[in-house]
Amino acid sequence: MEYSTEFLLRPVRGAQPLGSKKKEIPSRFVQQLLTEWLDQASLPTEVGGIKATPVLESSSSEIQDVPEGNISQERAYPHAFDQSSPEGMARASIANAANRMSLALDAFEDGDIFQVSSRLGEAAVSLSVAHQKLGRDNPLAALVGYMKRSLLVADVDALTRASIEAMNSVLLRCANSPIMRLTEAARQSGLLERNGWRGDEPAIAALAAAVLNQAASEDASTGQTAIVE
Amino acid sequence: MSARSFLDTTIVLVASDASRSEHKGSVACIADNAPAEAPQYALRELLAGDLQNLCDLHNRLKSADNIGEALAGLASLPPFVGRKKSSGIEEFARQLEERFSTAPETPLVNVKDEMAQSLALKIVRIWVAACESSNWTLVQPLSCFRGGEFDYGAEGDLRAPSDTFNCDKSSRCSAAGYMYDRVGSVSKLSDVLHPDKLPEKLQGKAEVASRRKALKDLRNSGPKSFNKRGCRALGDAYFVVMCPPGASVISTNSIDFDLMCEAVGGKLIVP
Fold first, then answer.
1. How many domains does chain A have?
2. Interface test with B, best of A127, A149, A212, A218 (most B CBs within 10 A)
3. Which residues 207-226 on chain A approach chain B with CB closer than 8 angstroms?
4. Which ipTM was obtained for this model?
5. Domain for residue A153, yes or no?
6. CB contact under 8 A, A207 and B92
7. Within 13 Å, how many C-alpha atoms sit on residue B174's CB side?
8. pLDDT digits over B204-224, tens only?
9. How far B187 CA lies from chain A's nearest CA (Å)?
10. Is A18 within a domain?
């Protein structure tokens, strides 16, 4: 069985070099050792029919280092991938929404605008379910809410391949690596925004507009308007 | 020959918020005047000004137990945009009313949480875009400015990067240090902002008076003794003084910049 052990070889944040001389570590040998260690020590094991997996702290506000990539997140935060947990159920719904967006792209390529609209609605329903399962202070919940509202108010006539691809890309990112910091959630919503999606909550958009001393933007209440790029 | 530009806080904000109607025009203006540079002072002003107001709004919304508390919390915010504050709250109340009339069975806590999430994401999106934009290069680093990431606190409140909107208490004002290297320009601005010389539109503006006082303090006492509290009062003067030779300041605010740019022979572009 093969596992990615690359993340374990990265330098630990805050670690100080012990000496001035840099020691050469045979990385292939270390990698092999780590792979064997993972095989023996940290694989999920079945106890009395229940899968026992190592559980690490995963409160969103206390995430110190979010491992990159699918496999490492699945190891570090198994509850987010466990389909019987609320987070796991949310993740499944997000994956379902991604699937609906793939079908929306098929319909877009066929020029079937009504089918595109239906697929967006289906994806929004899946995201609504996911949103209800996620904790209120979870950055993923904020991003899922943004995507749900974007899909609900989208102007189907203004959709482009890039906008659909962007939405699908973010959905897949969320399904594959659901643990993220607020900054990453903001980056992903920024990608959507740059591709024409508008998911700010309407009352918040109005209030933020006043705070930021801007003229009330029609974008805030009518959803997607001009598609950039 | 390509034009160079130096961005102030207002243009950095608009170019970092793609939901605004002026966004496209601002980004195009920056591209037309590439290469563009934004001083870290713009990030410091953005964080301590607009983003702090929005963060405060988030935390008041989050702590409200009912609609009345939410509105009272908003009404007691500092007068962030003068007379526009009340219109913002009115619009917010109208949107809330619409929300509850279309889905009256929705529990308030769900509505409130979704709004707070949306606001948190908006704040951080603007911050991340300002810090990471490929439309400009960040220059003139400030050692007194910490930066970093927004995050949720243990109670779900939104926390500033490094848990503060202010500069490092133990450092002296880096912005004043940069400006003092061009003390001649500082003097010119201090003179031109004299109340007797101000055009009618700037007469009686408290912001202009406090800016002149900060400039005079800097000119007279130098950066080592400069009171850090005057950092934000320097405001627009920082961009005028620190704009690189041959570059133009880009700002959405012509009222405050026109006079100062003219005084130091600088050029201003308003998208």
1. 1
2. A212
3. 207-220, 226
4. 0.86
5. yes
6. yes
7. 17
8. 888 899 999 999 999 999 999
9. 31
10. no
